[in-house]
Amino acid sequence: MKTTLITTAVAICIAGAASAEIRIGASVSATGPAAFLGDPEAKTLEMLVEAANANGGINGEEIALVLYDDGGDPNKARTFATRLIEDDEVVAIIGGSTTGTSMSILSVAEDNEIPFISLAGAIEIIDPVKPFTFKTPHTDRMACQKIFEDMQKQGITQIGMISGTDGFGASMQAQCKEVVGEYGITVVADETYNPTDADMTTQLTKIRNTDGVQAVLNPGFGQGPSIVTRNYKQLAVDLPLYQSHGVASDGFIELAGADAAEGVRLPGTALLIAGLLADDDPQKPLVEAYKTAFEEKTGTSVGTFGGYANDAFLILTDAITRAGEADPTAIRDAIEATEGLAGTTGIYSMNAEDHLGLDLSAFRMLEIKGGEWTLIE
């Protein structure tokens, strides 16, 4: 195993000794404000490449991973995507920890006809469908729908929203407003906060004092939702609080505090409840294998975001294996033909009109109880 670290760009090249190799590129936010997303994604990709090469690579060829840390900066992500294609000569790219960096990468990938698998949530990444762009997380629109399904079951008809103004928060806010009426629910209070805000009590007080509010939804990711959750507890708001899949990790519970997070509901993946999965659940073997490998390798708890990278690598290597060659167009065609592939996030089946390949059944509705994730359906 050869590892070269270029500290300026934080680029890591992992390759075997064989002369024939398949070069895969990645740009993730391993440092910076989105490091809670990109760090486990980078560690996952490194771990999976090492394991794959130890088992003969893909179709007998070693995998070379060229990994850059864009720090969550869309401009850096665009630069690295260009470098990956023009200088590093990769056949596909995984990455885009955030919506902003994903949009930058996909513009370069599409122009150069290189397959790109995004790790971010916003629906605009794959809607409308772009020929060479795919993604692994559920869309923000799907998260809204899953949350509203649960609210509908609880008889909730009027809600307040407090959304982050970052790319993910703004996109999910818009998507939720588009579909909320389909569930007989009305948004009667609508507040926002900036990613750098340290206190949201003013916005939450306005929501609490709005007549008719029965629950609160917080589209957002990063530290914002944790602050919202703590402020919610401090204000003793006696209403159900829903968060997005953008905070579906143990880190959210730690930042918010188990006491404040008690009762919070959100849509998550099978990975967060690995121990609760039925023995016949088709995702269980893959989820348990990834969880065990990641935690043994890193000494840290597994999370949803590393799982997105796991699934992207799985989709890509499965496609290359089926294509029988590492030609970008052949890989693209094979990714689009993915059928019934179990990952940590769901079971992927893609086609020309669907470059995500998941439906709402891939989401699990979760509730935090006693500092732990529990399944509520």
What is shown here, in short?
The protein is α/β, with parallel strands linked by helices and about 375 residues long. It has helices spanning about 35-55, 75-85, 100-110, 140-155, 165-180, 200-210, 225-235, 250-255, 260, 285-300, 305-325, 330-335; strands at about 1-5, 10-15, 20-30, 60-70, 90-95, 115-120, 135, 160-165, 185-195, 215-220, 240-245, 265-270, 340, 345-350, 365-370, 370-375. It has a seven-stranded mixed beta sheet with strand order 1-2-4-3-5-6-7, sandwiched between helices.
Characterise this structure.
The protein is α/β, with parallel strands linked by helices and 377 residues long. The protein has two domains: 2-138 and 284-359, Rossmann fold, CATH 3.40.50; 140-269 and 363-375, Response regulator (Rossmann fold, 3-Layer(aba) Sandwich). It is built from twelve helices and 16 strands. It has helices spanning 35-54, 74-86, 99-112, 140-153, 167-179, 201-208, 224-234, 250-256, 258-261, 284-298, 304-323, 328-336, and strands at residues 2-6, 11-15, 21-28, 62-69, 92-95, 116-118, 133-135, 158-164, 186-193, 215-218, 241-243, 265-268, 341-342, 347-348, 364-369, 372-375. The strands form four sheets. A seven-stranded mixed beta sheet has the order 1-2-4-3-5-6-7, with helices on both faces. Strands 9-8-10-11 form a four-stranded parallel beta sheet, sandwiched between helices. Strand 8 (158-164), helix 5 and strand 9 (186-193) form a beta-alpha-beta unit. Helix 4 crosses helix 5 (167-179). The longest helix is centred in the first third of the chain and has 20 residues, at 35-54. The chain is globular. The model is unreliable at 1-10 (pLDDT under 50). Residues 21-357 form the Leucine-binding protein domain. It holds the Pfam family Peripla_BP_6.
